[in-house]
Amino acid sequence: MTRYVQFGLPLTLLATLLVACGGDTTPPGAASSGGGDDEPMVVMEQNNGGMHAQAGANLNLPSGFPEDVAHYPDLNIYGASTIPNMGYTLAALAEASPAEVAAFYSREMAALGWTEAANGPNGPGQMLRFEKGARSVSLNLIPNGNDTTLSITALN
After folding, report:
1. Cα separation values, 105 from 9, 81, 141, Å
2. Of 42, 61, 64, 93, whose CA is between 20 and 30 Å from 51?
């Protein structure tokens, strides 16, 4: 699969959504990836009413992302949002099948004290939901060739 389909198309869609929402959209000064493929590259950043959103490749977890939410190894985050007093959303790509990613999250989230509330098919992919007290984490896993596209929502 081409890099454009893996990263460019989702980034274009996310950037369009960010611009459509209004607010202060500023491309950061260093928008090139520099040396390596796994170095963070921010191509769009927006702050609007306390909400912070980024689009790019190999982004870092948003500041304040819950430490007790499992993080798949070598996950390529290409979209990240922080919504004050609500939670976080991530759009990412994992170099593994949906079944492998689901098994990782089922195992690791349980080890971190989360209860699996749902785990089942969702169209061609899989949906998982975890709860811990009043908090929840939802994952949608969609096959993308040999990889998996993830949508992660962690609510406070």
Report:
1. 26, 20, 11
2. 93
Contacts of 113 (CB under 8 A, 6+ apart): 68, 132
Distance of alpha carbon 138 from alpha carbon 112, whole angstroms: 15
Residue 40 corresponds to which tokens in the numbers above? 């963070």
Cβ contacts of residue 28 below 8 Å, gap of 6+? Answer: 42, 45
With residue 55 as reference, give the H or E element that holds it.
strand 51-59
- pLDDT of 51 strictly over 80: yes
Confidence of residue 124 (pLDDT cuts 50, 70, 90): confident
Q: Is the pTM of this model over 0.70?
A: yes
Tokens linked to 135: 């908090």
